[in-house]
């Protein structure tokens, strides 16, 4: 009989905080979009969350080795407005933390 060994990599996490550039205060209600290009046959995955009252957000259970792009949209009613964007790649069991500062004109709509 043949035997197969499967090794699972620990999953990663991205967390961040969004603050106002002028006041330095956290911004609640900002839409955070996470997309990843799996490969040509799977297309892109897209996930969304919102910042909490402390301006914080988290995406968990991210696959190591993938390239992720994060788009930060203060106004979800205006899909064209992206206040900030960054791309990162996770290693196994890695936690990435990112701080984004929004310009005054991009404050989230409550």
Overall pLDDT: 78
Q: How do the strands of the widest beta sheet line up side by side?
A: 3-2-5-6
First-last Cα distance: 62 Å
Count of strand segments: 7
Helical content band: under 10%
Tell me the structural class: mainly beta
| Rg value | 16 Å
Let me know the largest β-sheet. 4 strands, antiparallel
Question: So what's the overall shape?
Answer: elongated
Strand content: over 45%
**What is the element string, with H for helices and E for strands?**
EEEEEEE
Unreliable parts? 39-43, 105-110
Put simply, the count of helices is 0
Would you mind describing this structure in some detail?
There is one protein chain. Strands 3-2-5-6 form a four-stranded antiparallel β-sheet, with no helix packed on it. The chain has a three-stranded mixed β-sheet with strand order 4-1-7, with no helix packed on it. The chain starts with 11 loop residues before the first strand and ends in an 8-residue tail after the last strand. With 110 residues, the chain is mainly beta. A hairpin with a 3-residue loop joins strand 2 and strand 3. Helix content is 0%, strand content 49%. The protein has no helices and seven strands.
């Amino acid at each position: 009989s043949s035997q197969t060994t499967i090794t699972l990599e620990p999953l990663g996490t991205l967390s961040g905080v969004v603050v106002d550039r002028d006041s330095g205060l956290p911004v609640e209600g900002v839409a955070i979009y996470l997309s990843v290009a799996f490969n040509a046959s799977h297309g892109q995955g897209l996930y969304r969350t919102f910042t909490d009252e402390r301006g914080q957000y988290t995406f968990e259970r991210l696959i190591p080795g993938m390239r992720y792009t994060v788009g930060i949209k203060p106004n979800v009613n205006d899909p064209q407005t992206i206040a900030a964007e960054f791309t990162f790649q996770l290693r196994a069991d890695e936690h990435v933390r990112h701080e984004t500062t929004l310009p005054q004109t991009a404050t989230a709509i409550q």
